[in-house]
Amino acid sequence: MNEFSPVFPVLRFDHVARQTMPVFHPVQVRQPEQAPIGDLGAALTTAMRVSDKLRSLPKGARIAVAVGSRGIARLPGIVAHVIAAIRDMGHEPFIVPAMGSHGGGTAEGQKAMLEKLGISEESVGAPIRSSMETVN
Length: 136
Hints:
alpha+beta
């Protein structure tokens, strides 16, 4: 033990000592190996154009694009490509923050959080509709 190791008090829980502990097994998650995507924008556009669900929507459909705050690399570019592809398909995209309590859990705070991440109405070409109101 070194000087930086914590020292914990000895605790006794007699009722727990009589309990049988389950067997624990270590688990390792491996990410799939995939080749890098050369042109991410083109790949996004292609994936969206072949989507049966998107193609089945009537022209002019309003489509919410949920954008979170969990550290996705190149997020502003990804969102801008998704918005452009939706618009090119004849639909009306808009952004909704999808981040739970980030930004203080308020509509204004979440919009500000998106702007800190580089997502604004101007940068992605779609309005941001941030609201905590519910509709039954």
